[in-house]
Amino acid sequence: MLHIITRVSSRNFFGNLRKMSSFANLKVEIPSPYVFHIELDNPKKSNAISREMWTSFGECFASLHSNPECRTIVLSGSGKNFCAGIDLMSLMSLGTELSEHEDLARRGRVMERNIRLYQDAFTSIENCLKPVIAVVHGACIGAGVDLITATDVRYCTSDSYYQVKEVQIGMAADVGTLQRLPKVIGSQSLVRELCLTGRRMESQEALQCGLVNRIFPTKEEMMKFAFETAKQIAALSPVAVQNTKKSMNYSFNRTNQEGLDHIREINMLSLQSEDFLTAATAAATKGEAAEFSKL
Ligand SMILES: CC/C=C\C=C\CC(=O)SCCNC(=O)CCNC(=O)[C@H](O)C(C)(C)COP(=O)(O)OP(=O)(O)OC[C@H]1O[C@@H](n2cnc3c(N)ncnc32)[C@H](O)[C@@H]1OP(=O)(O)O
Fold it and tell me: How much is the pLDDT for 20?
């Protein structure tokens, strides 16, 4: 795995990096210019998501959204598994927080605050305009599935498997799977079968149904490919890439006309950007690869 920080370009960069490194249970690295690697880093518990980690997600992706040094992100899990879902012990501490109130309305408000925090954590991945490539190995359970459905591209190893396990622990999933998975996988019947039974889905089925679009025999091969893809994205105009994600997010649930109206508004400015001229000239002259300033 790549652990080296290459090419450091400014003081600001160091500032960002120091700030970025301080997220609980999330390891931040910069394997090549403009490519960030975020690793779930709670391997002793198969990267179960603690309360601190939920907060980290929100802060980390909001910060990457506005960090000009970041153009694309690879999201992986350390250790044996990608993610074991919510930290079941943190659910117990939520119980303790609840027990401080007798009144149902006040207990409800505690729950609302917590669920909202968890939901916003993964929505911050969707809202971050830098494309996020999730690389999944081993188990991807419960909140792990919620997490990857908020990413842009998903690769996996052949040993990976997926479980919308919430129903088996007595709850309806509430941090994104029920909203995003049906949009990721075409078959409503399959999504409902997965969510209503909590059964395991193996990697081959995940590929077949479109949850992931590539399978690799080993994590090393997957990481290498993911970093290559990330580098390709990072070499492109950040204006073009970020507007592409913005437009695709916006258009997902809207009519074609609404999507077209939205991208027209964006491109009436963006096509006047230096990036368009630089990239179009490089493509037309088949000259040297274009370089783009920070965004
Ligand atoms: C408001 C609500 C918002 C979000 C809700 C989300 C719901 C969910 O996420 S539902 C899914 C909950 N997760 C699970 O049910 C998974 C439970 N874990 C497992 O099934 C397995 O541990 C495994 C992930 C398949 C890995 O198995 P294995 O490789 O055999 O390792 P283990 O020995 O089982 O585990 C190692 C170590 O990790 C601890 N651990 C695993 N998962 C969790 C978890 N989710 N929460 C807390 N701790 C977990 C496990 O207890 C072991 O700890 P030791 O101290 O070493 O015993």
Answer: 57
- Closest ligand 1 atom number to CA of residue 45: 38
Residue 22: per-residue pLDDT: 79
Asked if the interface predicted TM-score (ipTM) of this complex is over 0.85, the answer is yes
Pocket lined around ligand 1, Cβ cut-off 6 Å: 45-46, 48, 80-81, 84-89, 115, 118, 139, 141-143, 165-166, 169, 174-175
Cα–ligand 1 centroid distance for 111 (angstroms):
22
88 CA to middle of ligand 1, Å? Answer: 7
Rounded to 5 degrees, what angle do the CA atoms 218, 207, 190 make? 140
